[in-house]
Each structure stands twice: as C-alpha cells, then as structure tokens.
Amino acid sequence: MTHQPSEHTGAPPGYDPRAFPPFAVTVDLAVLTVRAARLHVLLVRRGEAPHRGAWALPGGFVRPDESAGAAARRELAEETGLSGSTVRHLHLEQLRTYSEPDRDPRMRVVSVAYAALLPDLPEPRGGGDAAHARWTPREDAAPLAFDHERILADAHERVSAKLEYTCLATGFCPAEFTLGELRQVYETVWGVPLDPPNFRRKVLATPGFVEAVEGPPRRTGGRGKPAALYRAGPASALHPPLLRPEGRRP
Amino acid sequence: MTHQPSEHTGAPPGYDPRAFPPFAVTVDLAVLTVRAARLHVLLVRRGEAPHRGAWALPGGFVRPDESAGAAARRELAEETGLSGSTVRHLHLEQLRTYSEPDRDPRMRVVSVAYAALLPDLPEPRGGGDAAHARWTPREDAAPLAFDHERILADAHERVSAKLEYTCLATGFCPAEFTLGELRQVYETVWGVPLDPPNFRRKVLATPGFVEAVEGPPRRTGGRGKPAALYRAGPASALHPPLLRPEGRRP
DNA sequence: TCCTTAATAGTCATCCTGACTATAAAAGGG
DNA sequence: CCCTTTTATAGTCAGGATGACTATTAAGGA
C-alpha cells in the first residue's frame, strides 16, 4: 500500500499525488458473547440517517492518528464501558474490509470489520449516551443497517472456524470455568450438540489448552455432579484441530 | 460500515458529516507462483519517491467507483498483462488491511492486501511501461518498500494455511497436471518434503479434489516413470484437512 | 545393459475419533 | 429418606486416517 499515484498504478496521467480519491475509513465491530446458552451480538440503535432508528453493529470513524485496530479498541471501550485494561487485552480479530462503492449512500466509505469475543455478559453501559447498546440473540439480529448482516455472518463463520484450530473458546469464558461451560461455548457457536466425554478427552489431551484449578470442585449452580474448575492454558493453537461434526457419515 | 460521525462514534462534537478524516485507500498484491520448485512473488521496481528504486508489491489506488477487489483485479491485469478473462476467474484472496498511521511518510494511506495464485509462469509483461515487473524467489524478496515484507509474510502464511483445508493448490497448477506437480506445490509452499505414496493416497481419497484425465500418461519431461494426468475437481474444501507435518513427534 | 529417478501399489502399526456403557455426586420431589 | 433426574467423569471398542516403509514398474542416460 501506500503507493504513489503514477501511470502504472492506473491513475490518470498527470495525476497529482495529493489529489488522491478521498475515502472515509471506519471500523465495524461484531462483538460476540455466549449468554444463556445462546450466541449474542452487541448492537446499537442508530440515531442518525441513513438507517436512523435501525439496529447496527457498533463502530465509527478511524481518527487521523490511529490505526484501524486502535480505533476498534477505542470504539469497543466507548460502547461497552469496559475498562481500558480489559479492552486492551481481549482478542480482537480483523475480519476483512468492505469497500463496495455503494455501501453508504452519502459518501465513499470503506470499513475494516473486527470480531471480538467477550467472556460473560456485562450489560453494556455506553461511555456517554450509549444506553442504546444492547445484547441481541444472534438469530434475532436482523434487519441491520448497511451491510452489517453480512459482516455479522462473516464474523460468525470466522469465529466458528477459529474454534476448530485455536484455543479462542476460552475467550468466551470467565477466568475460571468448567469443561461443561467450555463445551457450551462450542455447542452454542457451532449450533450442534457435542458428546461430553469425547469433548473432555479431547480438551484434556491437548497440552496447554486448559489447566486444572486446585481448589474444590465448587461452583455448581445447577443440578448434577459438581464439575472441576479450569483456567485457560498457555497454548494458542490446537494440534490436531477440534473439527466441527459436519462431515458426518451415517 | 459507513457510519455517520456523531458523538458516540468518538468524533468531536459538532463534527461536520462531510469533514471526515481524509484517507487514501490502496490495494497491494502478493502474487505468488511456483516456478522451478521454488515459490516466487511478483515484484515491481518503484519509480517514485518514497522508496524510489526499491522493490515493492504491485498495487495502486482504489478508484472512486470501484471496490478494493475490483481495483486488485485491475492492477493485476495491468501488471501481468494477463487477459481480462484470466484475471477475472483466478482466485484473489483478501488478506487483511494495513492501516498504521506512519505506513506512508507522505500521507495517511490504508491498504487492503490481496493474495493471488498463478498457475505456471507467464513472464510478466506490464500493460504499459511495466517491464519493471519481475518474478523473484520468495526468500530473495527483501528488502521491500513500506511494510511489504510483512504483507508478503502474511500472504505466505495464509496460503500455507489454506492449502491445508482447501483445494487451492490446483490454482498453482496448469489445467492438467500430475500428482507429482501437485505435490511439488505443497512441498514448495510449505518448505517440507512429503511422502509421495501417502500424498497420492490422501489426494485420491478426497472426493472432488482431482479428476483423472483419460488420455495416455503422456507428458513426462524428465526421467522416471510417466505420471498420469489429472485436472482440478469440483470440490473446494478438504475434509478432513491435509495438515502440514509440523507436530512431528520422534 | 546397468543405474538412477520417479510413479504407483501395498503393508503395518499408531493415533484419533465417534458411539456407547457405566459410575459418581449433586438437587428435588414425594 | 428414598428415588428420579441431571451432569460430570471414567472407560471401552471399532473404524478411519496417517506416518513410515517396502516393493514394483517404467522411463532416461551413461
């Protein structure tokens, strides 16, 4: 990137280097969490045209002195009210960039989309007036403004895929969690039930995925035998991967 | 996205919707091919400051009326002289967007990077004055202008990963190819030798990956027993994946 | 003709996974 | 207090997939 306009770039001859085509650059965030065994996404209600009153993914303009990733973290902090330290450390994944010329009816805007995973469910308290932010079940997130349904679908697919070969799932969990909760994350994001013994075997057989927490098997909450607690381990990748059960042969 | 500047986006209060921060948007292309059992990348020599005279990835400004993907295809056609039809059909993969504020010393430029795979080795004949385009062995592609070494590294990693779970490798091959040539693609991109019988077994066991070509086992070229010919099949994904031999346990 | 090279056919043991069965430890209802 | 329900956890078992090898076939070159 950052090319000089010149003949071979396709710019018109005699093109002035400073007279580049002007674009606005924004970020859009697909912030996901697992809540009550359902995948939720953070949505805001638009207060401005176009799509005034419609639900949309949070986002905003990239400022002149920050990268798109920095803008995404700033917007995330503003929308959720999470502490700077929390936002600074959580996983932000750049999805892709959407640049169709007609994405925005007012002007040429390209948007860099990010996906973020949040542990539990801190009700969003927008930094300023953002009581307009709400957790919405993923399947209820329609219609959305602009091409945000597409972005959300891409985010969902990317997260589903990354669960297969990374330890990302622990990002959906609190600091200490049970294997049942971790399994719930997979089942919720993938939308399929998993066999508890097999899931347990696989997770425990992957070095560095999770670490046992010493204490008693406290923290039941519901019925059933109390489960042991684990925390996220140092590993970041899964070898071999934990594949979605899709190629099922009966 | 395409957001209206407003208080909750982080824009200054009273911000005028049209006075968005101005950015230039470019595309950069990591065009890869396998040539003489080595991975090559298409580089151009810069004729303008900054980095005048340095090698760089081909690319250029996105025009006001085209998407980044369309700009990438246009630039690719201009740099390689490939036919419009060829360029229109080959696989272009959006990598990610690079937006560090200091990427370009002259102005604020964000660049959408793409990776492309080309079959054999059509010596690049730039559309206009682009005799400045050259195939360069991937490991010789340094130093490069701007952050292009980083982009190239990201492209290499992305392609390596996609070879594992997609049929992308056939994109490096001509219309008809031998399993040895296909294996060569994997070995070259991954930089590791693969066991020929095992590779063959895996490829043939994946439905739709390749289809046998009827004719005689023509097209030898070198020594050894002549190999049967295949063409790309209809499948696009590999289930289960063909994983890189990295987690080797001795 | 002998040697080298590369494709292709098989073998074998191991690892991983999906499908199940069984046991343990809680909560809740009668 | 006993019984049922629920969830966690321990094992078992067969089949598929893979890595490591051996063997055979069919060219080219010296």
Could you list the spans of chain A in which at least 5 consecutive residues all have pLDDT below 50?
Answer: 4-17
Number of distinct helices of chain A: 5
CATH topology value of the largest domain in chain A: Nucleoside Triphosphate Pyrophosphohydrolase
Strand content of chain A: 15-25%
Largest sheet of chain A, in brief, is: 7 strands, mixed
First-residue to last-residue Cα separation of chain A: 50 Å
Mean pLDDT of chain A: 87
**Radius of gyration of chain A, taken over Cα atoms and rounded to an integer in Å:** 21 Å
CATH superfamily of the largest domain in chain A: Nucleoside Triphosphate Pyrophosphohydrolase
Helicity level of chain A:
10-25%
Number of domains of chain A: 2
CATH class of the largest domain in chain A: Alpha Beta
Structural class of chain A: alpha+beta
Order of helices and strands of chain A: EEEEHHEEEHEHHEE
Known CATH architecture of the largest domain in chain A: Alpha-Beta Complex
Query: How many beta-strand segments of chain A?
Result: 10
> Which pair of chains has the greatest number of interface residues, and how are they split between the two chains?
A-B, 79 and 76 residues
Oligomeric state as shown? homodimer
Choose one word for the global shape of chain A.
elongated
GO molecular function (chains A, B): hydrolase activity
Keywords (chains A, B): Hydrolase
Pfam family, one (chains A, B): NUDIX
Protein name (chains A, B): NUDIX hydrolase
